[in-house]
Amino acid sequence: MQIISRKQEEEISLYFLPCNTNLKPMLTNLTRLVISFMLISFSLFCSAQSVIIQSGIKLPADTVVGKQLISSLNGFLGQKEQPNKENKFVLNEDLLETSDLLDEMKGIERNSKANDFFKPYLNNVVELDANNFIVQLSYMSVMDNAPVLRVSFKLRAKKQGTQFYFSSPLKQNTIAWKSKKYNGLTLYYKDTLNSAAAKAYQKQVDFYDTKLKAPKLPIEFYYCDNLTEALQLLGVEYKADYNGSKNNSLSSHENNTVLVLNAGYSEKSRFDAHDLWHERLRLVMKSDVINRPVDEGCAYLYGGSWGYTWQEIVTKFKKFASENPNADWISLYTDNKVFDGKEKPMYVPYFLDALIVQKIEKEKGFASVMELLGCGKREKGDENYFKALEKISGITKANFNVSMSELIKKLP
């Protein structure tokens, strides 16, 4: 059964809050029960919703095979919310790239703009041979009496025994691509390869992995022209979430191998050292224990942000600090205030944690930084963070402002 998060609870509670606020305490428990029931129902809906076969779809001529295909597809979609490696409709040999595709499929039913769900529609089935098919499906809904497309997928379906297994078409889509190896890095590209960019990526990976004591896992790295191409290679023909997005990086980690579909970062760079930090950290630490401000602080320090180097970020923060000589750093930290930028914001807590990480690493080594990184997800008031910070560094809530002022004064 899916655990109900407080965020989900708050979203659905908007539909159930009584008009008379004096009744709220009396109805709290009932409201929670209703919310829990609704969310569990949503979870069951997602796992039980069968694909809708549109009129005119040409299914396999053998009706038994057709039933096996549809049954297996429903099974595959019904298990997509659980850990990817546990999906019984994915072969282990296809898990790496299909895991990336499954990540794009998670939670796709939820329609936050309407009191409805996006439903899966089967759009096309193409028989390649007796045991291999291409399946296309879309998730659609109706808003303001008009059909709305959320996402469209293309899958490969392989028949073994009495069931079908599904996979990303990535390997087939790039069968004519060239490849080149740099140590444990295998690069896939269409025509030309920027060797300097590839070596810079490998160097940054090695820098992070050495610091994190991460295992030296092989990396399969695909050079894509843009995000639209990367998604289509993976099997995502369209996804509304990415409207207007030109660059990004899609990745997965399965079977002790890392897959990266790189769609560029900017006109000047193929990858973002900031995001690469987050990716490498998650190879050695579970996401549900990572404290985001500390994680972002490390990414600022080691990889910059929004294309700015660490030193350029320091310059921006020094300007902010000089304009706010009496700043209450602990309030700015807990309130998650921005110190620069609107479209590309930089946050006070992230910068302060970069300074703290720098101090801890210098005085106690990176193992202590890892302890702070793993102090738990951010919570209101940052109590778990401050408890760990005091234990590791001696910086407390009481002396936080003084400690931060001292670190800021030492900035070059």
Would you kindly provide a written description of the structure presented here, covering whatever features stand out?
By secondary structure, the chain is of the alpha+beta class. It folds into four domains: 6-48, no CATH class; 52-168, Nuclear Transport Factor 2, Chain: A (Roll), CATH 3.10.450; 178-284, no CATH class; 289-409, no CATH class. It is 43% helix and 21% strand. The chain is built from 15 helices and 15 strands. Strand 14 and strand 15 (346-347) form a beta hairpin. The longest helix is centred in the N-terminal third of the chain and has 25 residues, at 24-48. Mean pLDDT is 87; it is low at 1-47.
What is the number of helical segments per DSSP (H or I, 4+ residues)?
15
Beta-strand percentage range: 15-25%
- Number of individual domains: 4
**What pattern of helices and strands is seen along the backbone?**
HHEHHEEEEEEHEEHEHEEEHHHHEEHHHH
- The average pLDDT score comes to 87
Tags for this model:
412 residues; Nuclear Transport Factor 2, Chain: A; 4 domains; 6-stranded mixed beta sheet; 5-stranded mixed beta sheet; 15 helices
TL;DR of this structure?
With 412 residues, this protein is of the alpha+beta class.
Helix/strand layout:
Elements: H1 6-13, H2 24-48, E1 52-53, H3 63-78, H4 95-105, E2 110-111, E3 116-117, E4 119-129, E5 132-143, E6 146-160, E7 163-167, H5 170-173, E8 178-182, E9 185-189, H6 195-212, E10 219-223, H7 227-234, E11 236-239, E12 249-254, E13 257-262, H8 273-281, H9 292-303, H10 310-323, H11 329-334, E14 338-340, E15 346-347, H12 348-364, H13 366-373, H14 383-393, H15 400-409
Parallel strand pairs: 1-4, 9-10, 10-13
Antiparallel strand pairs: 2-3, 4-5, 5-6, 6-7, 6-11, 8-9, 12-13, 14-15
